[in-house]
Predict the 3D structure of the following.
Amino acid sequence: MNILVTGGAGYIGSVVVEETLRAGHKTVVYDNLVKGHREMVAEDAVFVEGDLLDRDKLEGVFGEHSIDAVIHMAAYSLVGESVAEPSKYYQNNVVASLSLLDAMRARGVAKLVFSSTAAVYGEPEKQPIEESDRTAPTNPYGDTKLAFEHALRAYDNAYGMKYVSLRYFNAAGASERCGEIHDPETHLVPIVLQAAAGMRDAVEIYGDDYPTRDGTCVRDYIHVIDLARAHVMALDLLDKRSAIFNLGCGGDGYTVKEVIDVARDVTGREIPVRVAARRPGDPAVLIASSDKIGEMLGWKPEFQDLRLIIESAWSWMQRSSAGKSA
Ligand SMILES: NC(=O)c1ccc[n+]([C@@H]2O[C@H](COP(=O)([O-])OP(=O)(O)OC[C@H]3O[C@@H](n4cnc5c(N)ncnc54)[C@H](O)[C@@H]3O)[C@@H](O)[C@H]2O)c1
């Protein structure tokens, strides 16, 4: 197939592009580089610098490259920023994303895989979280992702546009070439490794009095390569139907302290920690049930062991400019 990947110069997008290419799909990356990195885009992909709101450019790309399906990853994704600046989030994650859908309609492209998030669930009612559980986001970031899922359902009903929405839990780890760089960085694994590398003085633990096995929050970490492979599998489903899937590793998840301990072990470095107050809206435990995608698509994580995830991230950091002093 000919695939357009929006946000393909970002952290997860750049690994998704490696996997679509590996699967033999011609891949076009569409990214405005507001957060992305041109050098992370695989050489065999076509790169187009452009914004989702530039409808003419998008339609031109659909025509020029005979695009069959879109993997839509371009978005803003900082929870705190979405609370402070909801307008920015609604503009990009809803308005600009609708511009993409309408460009697809205009060009007869009717297949889309969407990067959704565990944030659509808000405070979960039970663990592990299943796709049929209540969605009640607790911040504008989650609201915008859920709003777009609703648009997808309506576009499928009315126009027959098929979609797979992948609700990611915490992506982490690296491929050979591509790893995690966000500015600012808010994700635990790179923050812990930056502390190991001496690039920050300590890791802040937001609350150590949660009702969990060591008092710190439990999260579900998924290796970015496992995540990326799910997108390639999802493309095949689009011939038949639309679906929503969780993407995480399940099991017992890992506490913040467990992540730090594994990182100390992998890096052999000191990682100083500082316990800070809980952050509002941080649930004690967030674990995905990924049974549905396993049953329907045969997806299975290959790298679910946290040690493998952290080893890949540390090794990438040491090789890349993101971790110059690592
Ligand atoms: N990182 C995670 O753990 C995680 C978890 C859940 C969901 N997600 C979702 O996955 C997707 C990718 O996340 P990431 O961590 O790789 O983020 P990222 O910021 O590294 O990548 C996003 C990319 O989208 C591009 N972009 C943003 N707005 C654009 C626009 N209007 N036009 C063109 N390009 C635009 C950016 O330049 C960037 O390259 C996002 O949609 C995010 O909400 C990520």
